[in-house]
Amino acid sequence: MVVTGISGNLGRTLAKQLHQAEAILGVDRRPFVGKPKDIEMFQIDLRKKKLDDVFRRHQVKAVIHMGILHDPRMSSEDHHSFNVLGTTRVLDCVAKYGVKKLVVLSSADVYGPSPDNSNFLTEDAPLMAASRFPTMRDLIEVDMLACGFFWRHPQVETVVLRPVHIVGPTIKNAPSNYLRNRRPWQLSGFDPMVQILHVEDCARAMVAALKPGLRGVYNVVGPGEVPLSAIFKELGSAPRSVPHLLARPLLSTLFRYRLASFPPEELDHIQFLCAVDGARWAKDTRWRPSHSMRETIRAVLGE
Prior knowledge:
By secondary structure, this protein is an alpha/beta fold. It has one domain: NAD(P)-binding Rossmann-like Domain (Rossmann fold, 3-Layer(aba) Sandwich), CATH 3.40.50.720. It has helices at residues 9-18, 50-57, 76-96, 137-152, 174-180, 199-208, 228-235, 244-256, 279-285, 293-298; strands spanning 2-4, 25-27, 40-42, 62-65, 101-105, 157-163, 165-167, 185-187, 193-198, 216-220, 225-227, 240-242. It has a 7-stranded parallel beta sheet with strand order 3-2-1-4-5-6-10, with helices on both faces. It has a 3-stranded mixed beta sheet with strand order 7-9-11. The protein is globular. The two termini are 32 Å apart.
């Protein structure tokens, strides 16, 4: 089994759950420090021809693709090149070398938070994140590439997962970084419902997606949804109320001078609703999160 993006914190969590049951070929341009001895590692760029060598020299039965770059400080050209071209090469290898199972990790963020969103978005909802957050275009394109591959190659059991915000003690994405702040910003007059998923449950979902016969696009949710203020209360945070008209220009300045870790577009997630319906996934896999809401929230602090 090939796992792309294995050297990241989510990849390491997945490897820990999977390596004793499956022979894993890890692919990442970063080194995998502390790699389990039974994982064979290939430190290569997904866009390079060397990726073909991995598939040609090994009998690959399944691929989990989560080698997606998320760095708000990198240029849109670099993001597009790595994410879209890298995904295209992975999909080409899956088709060319007769891989039977493909799992692509996308994100529920592709729907985009919006004041016009309904309460719970299904997998059929339009992917509108780029309308307010241009840097999401390549992630949406990756999702659409995987969905297009699903229809063009019915011989491959393709599963596209769209998990809600992934949090955990080692996760350094925007939601986890934001919730770790002792004095986080809260936009005045807004308290949206939030869905979060423990990093270990996200890894469990990817393992469950390997189930023979399973195919399709799925939202993956955690133990429920709670108001943002309830998460602050559980974490013992003391949020600062900031008028939303001032927040964006202020955060833009702070981000430009590297005084903030996420761009102003991320403010949409603490202002507008983007809740998704995970009923299809639960029905088809009988999967349930193993961590409670309290455990998931407190995992942000490593507890």
